[in-house]
TrEMBL record, chain A:
<feature type="transmembrane region" description="Helical">
    <location>
        <begin position="180"/>
        <end position="197"/>
    </location>
</feature>
<keyword id="KW-0812">Transmembrane</keyword>
<feature type="transmembrane region" description="Helical">
    <location>
        <begin position="253"/>
        <end position="270"/>
    </location>
</feature>
<feature type="transmembrane region" description="Helical">
    <location>
        <begin position="227"/>
        <end position="247"/>
    </location>
</feature>
<feature type="transmembrane region" description="Helical">
    <location>
        <begin position="15"/>
        <end position="34"/>
    </location>
</feature>
<dbReference type="InterPro" id="IPR037294">
    <property type="entry name" value="ABC_BtuC-like"/>
</dbReference>
<feature type="transmembrane region" description="Helical">
    <location>
        <begin position="64"/>
        <end position="85"/>
    </location>
</feature>
<comment type="similarity">
    <text>Belongs to the ABC-3 integral membrane protein family.</text>
</comment>
<keyword id="KW-0472">Membrane</keyword>
<keyword id="KW-0813">Transport</keyword>
<dbReference type="InterPro" id="IPR001626">
    <property type="entry name" value="ABC_TroCD"/>
</dbReference>
<feature type="transmembrane region" description="Helical">
    <location>
        <begin position="97"/>
        <end position="120"/>
    </location>
</feature>
<dbReference type="Pfam" id="PF00950">
    <property type="entry name" value="ABC-3"/>
</dbReference>
<protein>
    <submittedName>
        <fullName>Metal ABC transporter permease</fullName>
    </submittedName>
</protein>
<keyword id="KW-1133">Transmembrane helix</keyword>
<feature type="transmembrane region" description="Helical">
    <location>
        <begin position="140"/>
        <end position="159"/>
    </location>
</feature>
Length: 287, 251
């Protein structure tokens, strides 16, 4: 099965793209989860769908091909992330309100562009649930570029992103410019979501950002450890998900998420096992 | 001449229309251990936020380490342990080492990385608060008192001249409160760090502080602990607006 992925060009594109998003989605997901912004990922993925639908629409109606749906999705996602930040500022006491507003806005626009483009087709289905076969070389290069940018910026601003996530007030007092750093974070999140949609699909992209983090959170001692473990779990889920998706002809979004959930359940089991073992040892060494 | 670390002149502040501080004049001498007491809602946290530059006073001026607050840039010389420090996300997966390292983030600066000498400083700060054996433990697994020590270490790693603590011992048990004050005492007397401490445990505090300040919208008292403990109940109840009694611990 793995041999197929190396032999056929289109599968190799998918496989390489999968490996890339298996790194960047859990990487950004780590910050998203600890800042309790998991739902923002969901809202942004629906805005991205609107952008993709817009891209498909202009492709179909005006035969414009230089803006691929990935690029228009990315543009919508970034604009959506800026709106979320503005709304969170307007509704200071009800910051979570920004999420349903942006999410429903995204779905509303998607419906409009989809019907303008004469309704559902396989392209759209692929964007909703991911696809093993739809990744073009062009997509691969776009996603590679985004991945390099994301890795570079997270690497350069790691200590600021980490410090701000833990304690915003203290970060501000110590002289970190919280606004631009937060802005950087939200833009990176928007880019990662747009990039991941090719493989996992709009509906499940937030799962690839959060489930590996949820699993590693239970096992890791520190933040860096959690980050690397999340990436390992993310890669495992993507590789196994792509192979099984291909083998059973299921959109990989579904298989990747189900495997992520299995990993999560195993991690909960391992943690329980560890705690029980420690308790037993305490009983033996104790009175 | 004794140096002053903080000097506030005629500071007033109001949230919307509610006057919280009126004409506060306060000097914090270098090397002092100042206890800031007063009733709930008396404006203690607000006063600290003004010193930290988080809010601007409506009137008055402030000097920090001899510089006007508007031009002051050495924020890492001022350490802060918040009232809310203990209310951080307990599930946040960070080791003690990682938490203390955050104290250096701003000082190291953008686009620069942690080096071996920083690692050394972080471990020293953890050792100063007596938590070295927990350096690679998850902060969420520690007790409230231990976590407060870690937050102090996060400030100490910058070698601050002034350390401000807002009710750090809330929710810490009596035995650990005692050890906590011993730590503060050491930092103040041995390392010459100026301390500003907001607290309600006046009994323990008066044993260690060099100055006591009483704030209820305006400053009602500024003197040494002996004078403070000898204040009559009548004096105190005018400050607090209700009867109080100080618990003095004798040994
Ligand atoms: N953000 C705020 N907005 C409006 N009022 C506030 C705010 N923060 C504090 N206050 C009010 O200011 C007064 C002083 O509060 P604070 O400085 O926290 O007092 P303390 O720390 O002495 O208990 C209180 O009456 C409080 O209700
Ligand atoms: Mg307070």
């Amino acid at each position: 099965m793995l041999a197929d992925f190396l032999e056929y060009d289109f599968l190799r594109n998918t496989f390489l793209t999968g490996l890339l998003i298996g790194i960047i989605a859990p990487l950004l997901g780590t910050f998203v989860v600890v800042r309790r912004l998991s739902l923002i990922a969901d809202a942004l993925s629906h805005v991205t769908l609107a952008g993709i639908a817009f891209g498909l629409f202009i492709e179909k109606k005006f035969a414009i091909t230089f803006i691929t749906p990935i690029y228009s999705g990315m543009a919508f996602s970034v604009i959506g992330s800026i709106f979320i930040e503005k709304l969170r500022g307007v509704y200071k006491a009800y910051q979570e309100l920004a999420i349903p507003i942006i999410l429903s806005g995204g779905v509303g626009l998607s419906v409009i562009f989809i019907s303008l483009a004469n309704g559902f087709n396989t392209d759209l289905f692929n964007y909703l649930f991911g696809s093993v076969s739809a990744v073009s070389v062009k997509d691969l290069y776009s996603i590679l570029t985004i991945s390099v940018i994301v890795l570079l910026l997270v690497g350069l601003f790691y200590k600021e992103l980490f410090t701000l996530s833990f304690d915003e007030e203290h970060a501000k007092i110590s002289g970190i410019h919280s606004k631009p750093i937060h802005f950087l974070f939200i833009i990176l999140t928007a880019l990662v979501i747009a990039a991941s949609i090719r493989i996992v699909g709009v509906l499940l992209v937030s799962a690839l950002m959060t489930l590996p983090v949820a699993a590693s959170m239970r096992l890791a001692k520190g933040f860096k450890q959690m980050m690397f473990l999340s990436i390992a779990f993310g890669e495992l889920a993507v590789i196994m998900g792509l192979i099984s998706g291909y083998y059973f002809s299921i959109p990989p979004g579904g298989t990747i998420v189900v495997i992520s959930i299995v990993i999560l359940l195993l991690s909960i089991g391992i943690k329980k096992f560890k705690i029980n073992r420690i308790r037993k040892q305490v009983n033996i060494n104790g009175y | 001449m004794t140096e002053t670390v903080v000097s506030m002149n005629n500071i007033s502040y109001a949230y919307e229309r509610k006057n919280v501080l009126e004409n506060v004049n306060l000097e914090i001498p270098k090397g002092s251990f100042m206890g800031l007491v007063g009733p709930n809602g008396g404006g203690k946290t607000t006063l600290i936020k003004i010193i930290l530059g988080l809010i601007r006073p409506d009137s008055g001026n402030i000097q920090l380490l001899g510089k006007n607050i508007d031009t002051f840039r050495d924020w890492n010389k001022i350490g802060f342990v918040s009232q809310k420090a203990n209310a951080f996300n307990k599930g946040f997966p960070a080791t003690v080492f990682e938490v203390v390292s955050m104290g250096l983030t701003a000082k190291i600066g953008y686009l620069k990385f942690f080096k071996a000498k920083h690692k050394q400083k972080i471990l020293e700060a953890i050792e100063q608060v007596g938590m070295l054996e927990f350096a690679y433990q998850n902060i969420g697994n520690l007790s409230g008192g231990q976590q407060q020590r870690i937050f102090i270490a996060r400030s100490l790693v910058n070698e601050p001249e002034l350390l401000i603590l807002d009710e750090p011992t809330v929710g810490v048990d009596a035995e650990n409160v005692k050890r906590f004050y011993e730590l503060l005492h050491r930092l103040n007397r041995e390392q010459n760090i100026t301390l500003l401490l907001v607290t309600h445990d006046t009994g323990t505090m008066t044993e260690h502080a060099t100055d006591i300040v009483c704030l209820n919208r305006t400053l009602h008292f500024h003197g040494d602990p002996q004078t403070y403990t000898s204040l009559s109940e009548k004096d105190l109840s005018t400050i607090y607006g209700h009867p109080v009694n100080i618990v003095v611990h004798d040994h």
